[in-house]
Structure formats: C-alpha cells, structure tokens
Amino acid sequence: MSWQLRSERLTALVVLFLLSACNWVFWQKFIALQQPDSLAAWLFIGVGFVFLFLVFNAILTLLALPYVFKPLISLLLLITPFVVYFMSQYGVMINAEMIQNAAETNHAETRDLLTLKMLSYVVLLGVLPLIALWRTKIEFRPFKQELKVKSLILTGSLLLLGVIAAGFYKDFASVFRNHRELKYLLTPSNYIQASSTYLRKSAALRPVEVKPIGEDAKQGARWGKVTRPSLTVIVVGETARAANFSLNDYERETNPQLKKIPELINFSDFRSCGTDTAVSVPCMFSMFERNDYSDKLAKSHQGLLDILQRAGLAVNWRDNQSGCKGTCDRVPNEQTSAQPDPALCRDGECWDEILLKKIPQQLAQLAEGKQSAVLVLHMMGSHGPAYFKRYPDQFERFKPACKTNQLDKCSQGEIMNSYDNTLVYTDHVLASLIQLLQGQQDKVDTAMVYVSDHGESIGERGLYLHGSPYVIAPDYQTHIPALMWFSPQYQQSRGISASCLKQKAAQPYSHDNLFHSMLGLLDVSTKEYQSKLDLFASCRQP
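The chain above was modelled as a monomer; its predicted structure follows.
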C-alpha cells in the first residue's frame, strides 16, 4: 500500500505526530503547571498547542524540499523514540550535558539501558511511522508554484503567531521563564539544540592545547620533617546520594561497617559540581570553581593530579567505571576491565572490591621505599538503572530488590531496596579499604578521602537517575556523601587534627574545596593554592 501527499500536508501530519505522540511528557508538565480549572486555562493550553504547531510547521515547511525532506524526517523518527523513552521512563531532561554523558558512556552502561520496553518505543514511534513515510510519495509542484505555496504558509503562520503573541505573550513569557525545564522536555527541539551545543563545544576543543598549571609546585616545608612514606587514597564515588547514608541519619542502616570506625569523619553537607559523571569528575579535580567551570576550561588546563605528580608524588588512577573523562590522561592509569578477576567480575563488569586488589602490594612496596603516593579509585558505586548488578548477592540486605533494568517493572520500594543495597556494598568496600590502610599504618602513613561525583533521583517527583540541569536539579542529585579517615601517624605528619575536622564537618562544602584541600593536605606549595577553599586549613598546625 502506498500514498501520495502534497508536501505541505505531509509536513502538517509529521508535526501533529511529533506534538501529540512524542511529547506527552512535555504536555503532562505543561498542563500540570497550568492546573486547569477553568475554560480560560484550557484555552491557554490549546493556544500553546497551536503556537508550537505553527512554529514547528514553519520550520519544516522551509526544509520540505525534494531529496531532503524524507531523509530529514527519517533521522528524526530514528532518534526521537529513544529520547521519548528516556524522558518518560526516567524523567530525564535533555540538555548538552546529558548528550555529553550519553556520548561518553561505555558499552556496559549502554547495555544496562537496553530494554524490551525501549524496543516497543522504537517500533511504535520510529519504525512504523518510518515505513509509512517511505510508502508515501511526496508530490512537489514546479519550483515557482512550490515557492508560492510555501510563502503563503509561512506568511499565514507568522501572522497567526503574531496574533497569538499579542494576546498571550505575558502568559507564555511567565510560564517559560519560570519553568525552564519545559524547553528540555519539548522534542525534537530539545535534543537538536542540546546536540548542537555539545558538538559546538567539542569542535572548539580540538585541537586541545593543555595549558600547564602549578609549574612552581614543590613539596612544602613540612615534608622535611616527614620520615615515612605515605599513601593518600582518593575514592571517587558514583551516584551515591547523602540522603540515603545512615551516617546522615537515614532511617535504614546503609553504613553498618563504617559507623563502627570511630576515626571516620562524615561531612554531612557536601555538594557536587555537576549532576553527571562527565561534568563532576573533571570539575572536582580542576582548579575552577563550579560557577566558573566549563568543559572547555577543564580540558584545556592541567588539573590537581598534574600538580601532585609535578611535586614528586607517585600518582595513579585505577578505574572501575567508564573512564576518568580526561582527568587522568597525564598520570599512570589502569582500567579494572583490562584484568578481570573471575571472583569479582561478571558479564564484563566488576564489583568495586576489585579496586582494592592491588593495595596490599602497593603498601608493601611503599614501605620499602621513600616516595609517597596518591591513589585515585573510581568506583562503579550505585550506577543505575541496573542497581542489582552493583553488589554481590550477600549484600542484598533489603528485600525484595528490583532485579531488572526496567524500573517500571518494579515497585518504588523494590527500586529503593536495590539502590540502598548498592550503598551497603559501598560501605563494605570503603570499610575494607580503611582496614587495609590500618594494616600497614605502622610502616606507611595512610589516609582515605571519599566523595561521590553526584547524587541520584529514585522516583521523587517522577525523576529517576541523574543528569538534570543543575539550576533545577533536585537536592537528591547534588547533595552527596563525603567521608575521610586518617591514620594517627598521618595526622601527626600532616599536622591535622581529626577532632577539629569533626567539629567542622557539618559546615557546607563542595567539590570546589577538593582541589585546594588536597594541595593543603599534601603540603604542595604552588601559586594555584587558595587557603580559603582548603577545608583542612583551620584544622592544620602551621
């Protein structure tokens, strides 16, 4: 079966399909904001539909050209179902950071997101319309006649848009200025604009000339008094939110092992730089504060690890995630997936305990030498939606747990159970790390600094996962756990007071503090250091 349609009729049908079948998330939000309880409110919603129809129709009318229109619409029909799926299933909003996050994910994370329900979206919103499109013969008039018709359509659209703007400008301006999230929900304009921004930023980064920073870095005066090597472990957590740590008064016991460590310091009001890994990880190791941070600045400047290495510390990055996002490019680094352990890895993914496997050997080597080291461990943590894959079976403390990556197949309680189980396992990994560090503290000064990269939404306000635009992100995505532990000898050699830090642990801190705090903690002298952002400064002896 095949059809014949004039280009303007097919254009109108495509726009109607996009606005009605592919934008129910947008309309749900738009209608909820209006709380329509009168004819005038419903009239405004109807006018909004007409307004968007005219805008989309005018744009596609310009692009409705022979040899262009069908491939263009086909591309939209191939991409849009995936966008609609993620917005409707996880409540995500599409901006440039979300596109970057998707572009930098690895195959294991991608596999966790593939579901049969996603396939149904692709078939219903993509494949079937695509078949109908390619069975339709588009009738184009001779050039001058086609130009005349398009001109009439565009003129009429502009006139109607002018009339609507004159009558409802104040209302539209109020809605879209006060609820910027709406533009991240309107497809396909959301992903077209986000992709354009991401590609423009990426293009501007190539070729990247990485500017050295901290070229004056050297070990400070305190190093002259240090008699033993040290190992400082920075643990970059993944998707852990502070609200679900029992150390932060969460009603469930998610920190059964860490709570038994009296020397542990819990920073209860710590904020992330971003809401996804692609932003947070490079940001937390850069010298730029969140308000000044950009991907371009981070990739065109060296970071904390470069300075530490320049100051004579042995720096190493061990990754159980999708990579360090450029942060570890100039220091020795390794992926756990390159040397999988059958006891700790399954289906191409490894549990986070694999990050600890080489630490006893590293501590033994340090004990025999003089050089101090900094080790960064990048966890898989609580990365969703396949939370159940993040922990071995014996750590399934909360039951029943959600055992699928299709969160809509599980109850809210089951999803929360599986997420909390990931935190119980993170608790075990961190406690085990501290135990390893304690085991060699008579030979090596040891310390652990843990901070998550960002938080997670678990169904609150219909949102799941993370990656919301920061200005409108819920607290669950930006309020993160941060923990520290120092051996007595480490405290003494660095001149820091754990009791003083505990007294200040309830103060507000953020990823902005990490760069300068690590420089201060490790006594690295450089002009890049700012004592006002060093959270150890007031608890360190001169």
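The CA atoms of residues 302 and 506 lie 31 Å apart.
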